[in-house]
Amino acid sequence: MQTLEKLEKFAQAGRVAFREDDVAPVAILVAPGGAAEVSFYGANVISWRPTGQPPALWLADSYRVVNPGSPTRGGIPVCWPWFGRLDDQSKPMHGCVRTEVWSLISAEVDAETTSATFALEETPSTLALWPHRFHLELKVTVGKTLSLALTTENTGDATFAITEALHTYFRIGEISKTLVTGFDCQPYFDKVTGTADCFQSGAIAFTGATDRVYHHHAGAAVINDEATGRRILISKEGSAASVVWNPWAEKCALLKDMSPDDWHRFVCVETANAGGDPIEVAPGERHTISATYTAALGSSEQA
User: How far apart are CA 63 and CA 286, in angstroms?
Assistant: First the structure.
């Protein structure tokens, strides 16, 4: 793990700094348009505050992991090289990299943005779960927007297939007063009921547990948060699917790393390649999935 002393070479006054957390260092990125914090544990963006706005990401009170090996609840977890639960129930949900400590390899600033790039390669623990060599990079850029780009490089000698997601927890005022648009007429798999071949009609409204995989969604989405008057635009590239999730009261009460009423305050709109459409990466090849988030107050327009 990189120490704060070793990280000083990346620091830039007023723009890039570091602090120690319970499990791993945290990078603090500041730009004129906003600020973000990224934990080296899982390369998880744990905070994003656009200038003049309240925090735009939700993070559970339990996010400080006492026992390394447990994932962080909230922020933007990196789900890779698989999304969801595998048939082999002994393997962890959402892959094996969100509980690894990543390394910082670069930090850059210009007049408008501040960025940091984190990297991870195979470790004995990842190889035990997924027997492939790889090089992962996550570039986080904060400015007027927040952007993430996750690049997979196959450094082994055999093609591998991945599913993946940027599992973003957006902070909202109240889930029952939130609409998500951009999915009209899109097919989806309803994981709550186990029903395939559903079709979205109009905006997504939340009246109960919601867990939907929109397998053919490559476009933008918008979160309209009526309670706070904020609108968040999500645009993406290299992604053929989106996932929309909120556990609602009953499941939230069963999740040990959430408080019973946390479900009121977040919605996950996830940039993904998931389900029946894995990405194949040949030896020496690279694949990038990226998302950009734009937050604005005082608008209730629907996209």
Answer: 31
